[in-house]
């Protein structure tokens, strides 16, 4: 029995794998994990009952069947693109209502500017913003587009890379003076850790060492379900916090907080536009996403 799959999504993923030359490059392009890329290609092979790629630990290449199917796949994708362009022409007067969610405190990432400019160009468009300090179920809650921070698992959604941000280990100068500064994330277990409980895994603080991702298991000295509140607790000297830079930068600039464990921070984590992977995507949503991606500013 064939595993249920999104055929168009798998075809698109296969095409990206070929265009980028590897599963890892396709993973970075599509912002989903490499194992999900591999699974979609395997599902595609099972669906059509043939091997599309020769794979080894060092290289990959198309099989004879893969070359034939790739040509047909690209014709399908080109036809869909032409249909969508035609739909754009028919719907050049945009109107309607969209609901967009984003993490609390993330407005400084710049997306409010691009969506505001879009609304000025299309005055019949209305947008409702939900700034939430929790994970959202887009389908159940009727959300059309979600701004999400961090790597995303494979799902029935498409993620488009919008920008990036850092996540900082931070504490107040007074806390460091009183308790000392940890030199390695393993030392966090003997420090007061301030937890943002709105995260999906709040007691796992991620870092990298020797270019490999790791995480430190921490316990909560104090916690809140809002990143701004956690930053305020850190400013008061209660402990160490692990927060995205859009919440901490102004306090770092003012000196109320300082960065620690800098050598273990990831350079950047992605900020993505996430929306349902539907063949007939809402023309209004499609236009907004295109505008946001094409009109980013340095601040974004």
What does this structure look like?
This protein has 300 residues and is an alpha/beta fold. It is built from ten helices and 14 strands. It has three domains: 7-90, Arc Repressor Mutant, subunit A, CATH 1.10.10.10; 96-156 and 271-294, Periplasmic binding protein-like II (D-Maltodextrin-Binding Protein, domain 2, 3-Layer(aba) Sandwich), CATH 3.40.190; 167-264, Periplasmic binding protein-like II (D-Maltodextrin-Binding Protein, domain 2). Helices cover 39% and strands 25% of the residues. The strands form four sheets. Strands 4-3-5-14-6 form a five-stranded mixed sheet, covered by helices on one side. A five-stranded mixed sheet has the order 11-8-12-7-13. Strands 1-2 form a two-stranded antiparallel ribbon. The chain is globular.
Keywords:
five-stranded mixed beta sheet; alpha/beta; 14 strands; D-Maltodextrin-Binding Protein, domain 2; Arc Repressor Mutant, subunit A
């Amino acid at each position: 029995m064939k595993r249920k799959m999104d055929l168009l999504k798998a075809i698109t993923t296969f095409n990206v794998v070929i265009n980028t030359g590897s599963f890892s490059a396709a993973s970075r392009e599509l912002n989903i994990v490499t194992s999900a890329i591999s699974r979609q290609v395997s599902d595609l092979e099972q669906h059509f009952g043939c091997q599309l790629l020769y794979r080894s630990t060092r290289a990959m290449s198309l099989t004879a069947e893969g070359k034939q199917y790739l040509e047909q796949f690209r014709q399908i994708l080109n036809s869909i693109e032409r249909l969508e362009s035609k739909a754009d022409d028919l719907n050049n007067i945009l109107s309607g209502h969209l609901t967009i969610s984003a993490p609390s405190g993330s407005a400084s990432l710049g997306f409010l500017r691009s969506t505001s400019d879009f609304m000025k160009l299309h005055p019949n468009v209305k947008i409702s913003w939900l700034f939430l300090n929790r994970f959202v179920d887009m389908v159940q809650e009727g959300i059309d587009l979600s701004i999400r921070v961090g790597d995303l698992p494979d799902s029935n959604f498409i993620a488009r890379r919008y920008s990036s941000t850092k996540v900082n280990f931070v504490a107040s100068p007074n806390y460091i003076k009183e308790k000392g500064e940890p030199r390695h994330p393993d030392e966090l277990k003997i420090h007061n850790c301030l937890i943002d409980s709105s995260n999906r895994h709040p007691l796992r603080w991620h870092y990298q060492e020797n270019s490999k991702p790791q995480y430190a298991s921490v316990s909560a000295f104090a916690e809140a379900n809002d990143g701004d509140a956690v930053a305020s607790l850190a400013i008061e000297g209660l402990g160490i916090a692990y927060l995205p830079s859009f919440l901490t930068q102004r306090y770092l600039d003012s000196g109320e907080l300082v960065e620690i464990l800098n050598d273990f921070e990831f350079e950047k984590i992605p900020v993505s536009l996430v929306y349902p992977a539907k063949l007939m995507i809402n023309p209004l949503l499609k236009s907004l996403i295109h505008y946001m991606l094409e009109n980013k500013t340095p601040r974004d």
